[in-house]
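Listing S7. Sequence submitted for prediction.
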Amino acid sequence: MRILFLSVLSLICYFNALGQNRLDSAKTINEVIVKAYLSDQKLITLPSTAILINQLQLQKSSVQSILPVLNGVSGVKMEERSPGSYRLSIRGSLLRSPFGVRNIKIYYDDFPLTDAGGNTYINLIDQSAIQNIEILKGPDGSLFGANSGGVVLINSQAKTDEIKLNLGAGSYGLVKENISLNKVHSNFEYNIHQAFQTSDGYRDHSNLKRWFFQAGEKLNYNKKGSIKFSSFYSDLGYQTPGGLTLSQLQQNPKSSRPATATVPSATEQQAGIYNKSLFGGLQHVYQLNNHWKHTISFSGLTTDFQNPFITNYEKRKENSFAIRTFLEYKNDASTNLKYHWHLGWEFQNTNSAIVNYANNKGKPANVLAADRIKNQSQFIFTRFSFQKGLRFNAEASISLNFVNFGFEKLPESTPSSIVGQQNLKPQLMPKLALSYLINQKLVWRAMVSRGYSPPTAAEIRASGAKINPDLKAENGWNYELGLRFRTLSESIFIDIAAFSYRLNQAIVRRVNANDQDYYLNAGGTNQKGLELQLTAKIIDRSNGLVKKLNASSAFTLSDFKFKDYKIGSNDYSGNLLTGIPKTNISSNLDFSFRKDFNLFIQYQYNGKTSLNDASTVFADDYHLLFMKLGWEKKINKTVLYINTGADNLLNVNYSLGNDLNAFGNRYYNQAAKRNYFLGLGIKL
């Protein structure tokens, strides 16, 4: 930790001198603007820890998914156990996610995509539809409600006038295409997007198929008011090959989970996930006068979910509804003291009818359990931010959160079904953040915030189909210090964050002898981390072989350990946090050459990772190399482009998403070896 800190200080001194020398010759890059906190703010002086991923970054590093670009962000880890099966972690939040996304709040075009039960189907979205992503690291519930990991805001609304068609193919049966139409008029804009992706996968029984349709529009019906609409329909299906033991992995890493003397194989049971979902949201914004503005939005998500698994066949019908509204006041921008005030409310309701059947070779048989779970969450929030001159920024915000669960019987219910209501105690989630511009190149910032994340519906009623109403919400305080540095030309930018997060009642996953999940509270965790994000414009000129060269790096050091964690006679206190490596590194080089060629290279290092709470089984560290060569030609208003490349160029054996605390030592999900791709596109 000390060595890295000294190295960072050396880098700042070096880049400071470099920036002074290049001030007259380098072009200024556009200053990054963050929109997450209900108003536009410059990243350099933002008190919170945030990062913006733009469309160009998404296009450069993504082929099949958004995994590579998200793993290029310090403190963020995204995994894919098999094609389509995603897990997302921000600062250790992977602990309670055997699959999917939990204790992270996600919004899509300003509408909550995370439902009232705490679940987010991020794999429904095709990566080609995303314009940009904002990531807020660490608990940030004062504006966004319950979470203990962070917040992700996905934007699909394009601001350009264009038609695009892309076709792609690659190893292991990869085929993909997408068509988008974006139109911008004086007071009206709309976008339509269609995408299809299929692949056979590297392993047996790992086929993926996804159809995705999206439509959005925005109407400025007068100078003060606007209406925005966003929607998508996704039909997603993917097979789940299951975890392997170490000996099975070494014998045949491509195999799916084999049968045992008592349990059939993943292929025999046709294990998979099938999700058909329709999402829609409507937002109205009205500028009441020069100072006051009102925003209100309504959104909904309906899901038909089926999961044939080894031990049962689950069917879910889910319907979610959300309202979000807030008032904004800002003073006269001409004053030396600028401030914003927000007051708002968000309400969510999710109704889930869940039936578990016996799985008869991929077909539902007799009913094992049937329940209806009603999740309701809401919070009231207020935020006050102000800026004193050009140097000092501060914000204070707080939310009051209410969460409850209801359990009801369905007609198919068994006598063991639970009926009742659980109302969690209302929780305050405050946040205080400050930043100070020491000089034109260096900004200091500090933040303290409280995290709070109730158990999700999938944790209260896990794959064993038994309701656990005694599971407690996790909570804790996060303390953070940071520095942002830039050269005067803004050609170099460094963002450093050091934090300490103490989480209580941490929720962890366990697996019983029937290979079914259940969850319990593990005492807590001590999470100390250091994150560094660096971007640099090294070359920017009109002649020469290399016209532009941009570089970026992300370093993550995680000292995450359990505290007060005992199960029976086993004491796991002091052990490494399961699933989180101590060290992660990601570095990119982006070249632009003469003759309209470009080359993108990404290197990623993932450190040794504990696979169980006892810290007795570890996944080895690994190094990944990705390369993408492209050619782009503009003919009048038409742009033609072609790209080709390879992933896992070093042909590494690694598991991109291990099963944590796996019963029977089935930890491993082998990722694809070296693979290739080719893409063609046209933009009008």
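Caption to Listing S7: primary sequence and predicted structure tokens for the chain studied. The chain is about 5% helix and 55% strand. Residues 2-22 form the longest helix (21 residues).
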